[in-house]
């Protein structure tokens, strides 16, 4: 029997299959096991992280993404992990005036959106992030599947018309970890639009 490691694979199922092999000693009969992995999508991890409320939502969003078996977090694009030269302006505000840093980070994020299967955004109606607004429009223009994820306590609050129009799917944060991104769907946001 072949041992199958599932340590690094999100498993859909382990299949047992009978087999026969012929070698110099005759016919061997046995059962092989093999892993059928869950198909996974990569995503762009769009979110603000400039206020305490945004930081809290960012952490919840990141955990739910990691917990979702249909998402490939290891190979997805998280802007905070791809800041130009590793410099975060929230930790180094002196770079707020550095055009090289700004353009390289901006273009890096666009590459992240272009190369991801899904554009996923942690969206706070009461603290909308202008950067996410631009990225939502860019992803929509590229034909990406755009998902807004709203913290449960803010779900239903009014959102911007352009964010509403850019979204293919709007989820509550509590729904994210279990949503099957291999079966995409469309829905309308149930809150008000302004």
Compute the separation of the termini in Å.
Answer: 61 Å
How many helix segments? 5
CA gyration radius, whole angstroms? 21 Å
Q: Detail the poorly predicted runs.
A: 1-8
- CATH topology term of the largest domain: Rossmann fold
Order of helices and strands: EEEHHEHEHEH
Tell me the name of the CATH class of the largest domain. Answer: Alpha Beta
Overall pLDDT confidence: 90
Largest beta-sheet characterization: 4 strands, parallel
CATH architecture of the largest domain: 3-Layer(aba) Sandwich
Proportion of helical residues: 25-40%
What is the total number of structural domains? 2
Task: Indicate the overall shape.
Answer: elongated
Counted beta strands: 6
Strand coverage percent: 15-25%
| Spatial sequence of strands, sheet with the most strands | 3-4-5-6
Q: What tags apply to this protein structure?
A:
194 residues, alpha/beta, 5 helices, 6 strands, 23% strand
Task: Give the helices and strands, then pairings.
Layout (H helix, E strand, L loop, with lengths): L10 E13 L2 E12 L5 E4 L5 H16 L31 H17 L2 E5 L7 H12 L3 E6 L10 H6 L2 E4 H4 L18
Parallel strand pairs: 3-4, 4-5, 5-6
Antiparallel strand pairs: 1-2
């Amino acid at each position: 029997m072949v041992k199958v490691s599932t340590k690094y694979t999100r498993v859909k199922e382990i299949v047992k299959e009978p087999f026969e092999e012929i070698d110099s000693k005759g016919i061997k009969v046995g059962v092989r096991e093999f892993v059928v992995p869950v198909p996974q999508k990569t995503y762009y991890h769009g979110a603000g992280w400039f206020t305490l409320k945004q930081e809290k939502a960012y952490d919840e969003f990141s955990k739910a993404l990691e917990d979702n078996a249909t998402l490939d977090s290891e190979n997805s694009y998280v802007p905070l992990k791809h800041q130009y030269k590793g410099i975060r302006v929230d930790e180094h505000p002196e770079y707020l005036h550095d055009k090289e840093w700004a353009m390289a980070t901006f273009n890096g994020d666009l590459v992240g959106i272009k190369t991801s299967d899904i554009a996923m955004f942690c969206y706070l109606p009461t603290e909308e992030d202008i950067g996410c607004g631009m990225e939502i429009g860019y992803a929509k223009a590229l034909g990406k599947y755009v998902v807004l994820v709203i913290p449960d306590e803010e779900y239903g609050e009014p959102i911007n018309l352009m964010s509403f129009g850019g979204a293919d799917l709007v989820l509550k944060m509590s729904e994210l970890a279990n949503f099957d991104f291999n079966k995409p769907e469309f829905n309308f946001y149930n809150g008000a639009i302004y």
